[in-house]
């Protein structure tokens, strides 16, 4: 979407509107023709009130929003944009709001979420200059245009597996100002953000502002952090696929740029002097159309998908995240039959500054989930080339581990992601929470591991299903239930009955179930075949 949009904006055939100023070295007649077209296409500027309020936290609350991504408040033609409210939890992560003591110690080793501050460059100012030679002390205006600001691009490339090397701030360079002899300023340098394949980019709010707001809510509500984020909503201006669409698809972003008719750079006489002149007022009314069309072009480009950008495949060419501001017009464009010595030019348009949340979601075929110390890491170690940390204490796995399982020399392989153990109350931020669930969201199937060594493994299974979002969410995936540690008291009728209870429960949902002993390498070959089927591979 962004790549197509950038192509359209850069296509000269599509961008030659009435607002397109003449090329360099324009004559007075060229400028007169351009200004005449602007007058013919005179139009009203967008009301400033419609450009205010996007990305603001609102105090209204609704428990219904916990199950829907957004609530539509108003739509065109009643309002210029589709105004929506969405839970604050969609635009921030818990890890960026927690104190340093609450953050896990493995953060330096594995980083799968980052919030970046990105800024595109502002356009350079137009120049106020006049031609000079030996015979003339002052000639016609020859001030060049300012260069466009640099843009921020993003590209998903293979070979990366973490977001740890990303900086916290990425700023493109501003465009250079124009110069004498009709020289345009240099374009600002772009910046490129390289991320691993599987990264999802979402618009988010300034973490510092959210942290201050959340702290005030927590003091009055006395609720868990996750519930505070779910209860409070963000007001957004959105757009759809077409002008009067009622369904939001993109968040509208706004630049802090000057209004139509403003943004003049004067040399010699000040703004008050020029505003008092009829010839300047007439010129400014025409140039307002140029400002409005430039602003509208910016608005069309300054949109970001409501659900984010999913970079699940390598991107051969970078995608434009934030486009740089347009350079200001030099005084050579304001030479007319009446205005012979224009001592003014236009200031460059502002760049765009936004925050984005980068989430790395693994591309594993299967997700391995279970309670802490259920034996997930031992299973992954037995079936794949991964070497996860194994121990006899809870939360041995502190970050996701991905292994590749090979079925044979001439057969296909599949990947398995092992995430930290999930405990009862994880959805309420207990234990390690559900921060790592993102790594199995793309998986075709989930392998749920329970330990027959536990007192009530069926209850453990129900706990996992609940924390994963309930039966409705789990049944969207292929499911294989693995009963590990089947060698413990294998002759005990009570232990055998534990397996039968789980088997009968799984049959109701047509899930496959298998007893194994990862420690003693029992039933592992059959487990690999069943996991391949769960991953959607034909046997």
Automatic annotation (TrEMBL):
A Pfam family annotated for this UniProt entry: MMR_HSR1
PROSITE patterns: G_OBG, OBG
One Gene Ontology term, aspect cellular component: mitochondrial inner membrane
Any one of the GO BP annotations: mitochondrial large ribosomal subunit assembly
Species of provenance: Lachancea dasiensis
One MF annotation (Gene Ontology) recorded for this entry: ribosome binding
Domain (OBG-type G): residue spans on this chain: 364-536
Entries under SUPFAM superfamilies matching the protein: Obg GTP-binding protein N-terminal domain, P-loop containing nucleoside triphosphate hydrolases
Keywords: GTP-binding, Nucleotide-binding
Name of the protein this chain belongs to: LADA_0B00650g1_1
Span of domain Obg: 108-363
Similarity comment: family membership: Belongs to the TRAFAC class OBG-HflX-like GTPase superfamily. OBG GTPase family.
């Amino acid at each position: 979407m962004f790549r197509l949009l950038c192509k359209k904006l850069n296509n000269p055939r599509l961008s030659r509107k009435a607002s397109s100023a003449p090329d360099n070295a324009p004559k007075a007649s060229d400028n007169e023709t351009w200004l005449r077209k602007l007058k013919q296409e005179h139009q009203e500027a967008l009301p400033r009130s419609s450009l205010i309020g996007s990305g603001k936290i609102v105090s209204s609350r609704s428990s219904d929003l916990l199950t829907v991504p957004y609530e539509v408040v108003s739509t065109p033609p009643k309002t210029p944009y589709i105004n929506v409210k969405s839970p604050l939890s969609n635009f921030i992560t818990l890890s960026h709001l927690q104190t340093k003591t609450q953050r896990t110690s493995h953060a330096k080793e594995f980083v799968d979420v980052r919030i970046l501050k990105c800024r595109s460059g502002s356009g350079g100012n137009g120049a106020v200059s006049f031609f000079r030679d030996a015979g003339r002390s002052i000639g016609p205006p020859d001030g060049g245009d300012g260069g466009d600001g640099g843009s921020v691009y993003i590209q998903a490339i293979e070979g990366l597996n973490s977001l740890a090397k990303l900086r916290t701030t990425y700023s493109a360079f501003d465009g250079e100002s124009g110069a004498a002899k009709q020289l345009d300023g240099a374009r600002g340098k772009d910046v490129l953000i390289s991320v691993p394949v599987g990264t999802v980019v979402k618009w988010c709010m300034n973490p510092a502002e959210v942290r201050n707001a959340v702290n005030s809510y927590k003091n009055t509500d006395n609720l868990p952090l996750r519930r505070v984020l779910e209860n409070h909503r963000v007001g957004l201006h959105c757009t759809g696929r077409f002008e009067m669409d009622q369904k939001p698809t993109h968040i509208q972003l706004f630049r802090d740029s000057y209004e139509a008719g403003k943004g003049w750079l004067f040399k010699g006489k000040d703004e008050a002097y020029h505003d008092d002149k009829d010839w300047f007022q007439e010129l400014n009314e025409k140039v307002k159309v140029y400002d409005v069309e430039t602003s509208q072009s910016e608005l069309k480009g300054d949109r970001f998908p409501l659900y984010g950008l999913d970079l699940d495949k390598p991107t051969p060419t970078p995608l434009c995240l934030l486009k740089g501001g347009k350079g200001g017009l030099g005084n050579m464009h304001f030479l007319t039959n009446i205005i012979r010595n224009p001592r003014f030019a236009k200031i460059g348009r502002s760049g765009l500054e936004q925050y984005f949340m980068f989430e790395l979601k693994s591309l594993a075929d299967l997700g391995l989930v279970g309670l802490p110390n259920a034996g997930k890491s031992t299973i992954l170690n037995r079936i794949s080339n991964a070497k996860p940390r194994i121990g006899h204490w809870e939360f041995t796995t502190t970050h996701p581990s991905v292994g590749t399982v090979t079925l044979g020399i001439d057969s296909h392989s599949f990947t398995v992601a092992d995430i930290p153990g999930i405990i009862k109350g994880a959805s309420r931020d207990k234990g390690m929470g559900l921060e790592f669930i993102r790594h199995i969201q793309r998986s075709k199937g989930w392998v749920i591991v329970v330990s027959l060594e536990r007192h009530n493994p069926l209850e453990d299974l129900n706990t996992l299903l609940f924390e994963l979002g309930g039966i409705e969410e789990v049944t969207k995936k292929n499911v294989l239930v693995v009963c590990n540690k089947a060698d413990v008291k294998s002759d005990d009728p009570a232990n055998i009955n534990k397996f039968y209870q789980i088997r009968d429960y799984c049959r109701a949902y047509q899930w496959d179930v298998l007893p194994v002993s990862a420690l003693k390498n029992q039933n592992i070959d059959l487990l690999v075949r069943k996991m391949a089927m769960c991953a959607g591979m034909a046997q």
